[in-house]
Amino acid sequence: MKKGSFFFRIPLGAFLLGAALYLPLPVFAVSSNSLKLTSDQLNMAENLFHFYEEKGWPENAIIGIITNLYFECSLDPTEVNAVNGASGLAQWLGGRRKNFVEKYGVLPHEASWKQQAEFIQQDLTDKDSPYRFVGQELMSAESAKSAAIYFGRDYEVPGRTTQEAESVAEGRAKIAQSWKDLLESTENLREHLDFLQNQIQSSQ
């Protein structure tokens, strides 16, 4: 747009005020299922989304993963369960925690979030991984909800029995669409803010 347009006749102070209205607040909410997040949680969700997007996962699969990690650790990669010692994004225990330590030399919660995300990636894709079938399920998931069920039931296994794990996974999956809506709306807001900031810089 040319500098002679109405857009650039708006006082810069007013324009900056308008841009500020688009800055993310400390807590974000999606009304459909009362999903509320701190800015740290939202940032982690976005980091994970872009990480798995770059790995080639479809959106539904990524939302399914994030939905479950939200329930596992509140999206805090340093989280440690005080009762059973499970730790990290996926609250790893037993053999998987041992494998993690062998690979990275530290316990899951002591590793970076990227190392933890990469460990999940390898679990879902390595040809010798017992969880490769979960990755295949995620790739074919027709909705974020079904992806959340697959990842919860078959990777996180939040229960003593298959039936219990499936029941818990189905409960988690109820907010998968809220996650999808939230991340899409947040991405749109950030893109709009970037546009506004670029316009401010070009007008100076």
Describe the structure.
The structure is a single chain. The chain is built from nine helices and two strands, in the order H-E-E-H-H-H-H-H-H-H-H. 32% of the residues are buried. The protein has helices at residues 12-20, 39-54, 59-73, 94-104, 113-125, 132-140, 144-156, 162-173, 176-203; strands at 27-30, 35-38. Residues 1-33 have low confidence and may be disordered. The chain has one domain (39-202): Lysozyme (Orthogonal Bundle), CATH 1.10.530. The two termini are 14 Å apart. It has a two-stranded antiparallel ribbon. The protein is mainly alpha-helical and 204 residues long. Strand 1 (27-30) and strand 2 (35-38) form a beta hairpin. It is globular.
Radius of gyration: 20 Å
Number of domains: 1
What is the CATH T-level topology? Lysozyme
| Distance, first to last CA | 14 Å
- Average pLDDT figure: 82
What is the molecular shape?
Answer: globular
User: Could you tell me the number of beta strands?
Assistant: 2
Query: Strand arrangement, largest sheet?
Result: 1-2
Look at the structure and give the CATH class: Mainly Alpha
Largest sheet: number of strands, sense, barrel closure? 2 strands, antiparallel
